[in-house]
Amino acid sequence: MTGHDTPHRPGALAGIGNTPLVKLTTMPGADSADVWVKLEAANPTGSYKDRMALAMIEGAERSGALSAGQTVVEYTGGSTGSSLAFVCALRGYPLKLVSSNAFSEEKIATMRAFGADVELIHSDTGIHPQLITQMMDRVAEIVEQEGAFPTDQFNNLDLLDGYLGIGRELVNQLQTEINGVAVYVGVGGAYTGTTRPIKERWPQVIRTVVEPAESAVISGEAPGTHSIEGGGVGFVPPLITPDSFDRVERVSTREACETARQVARTEGVFTGPSGGASMRAALRLARDLGPGQTVVTVQPDSGLKYLSGDLYS
Question: Do 310 and 281 touch, CB atoms closer than 8 A?
Answer without folding.
Answer: no
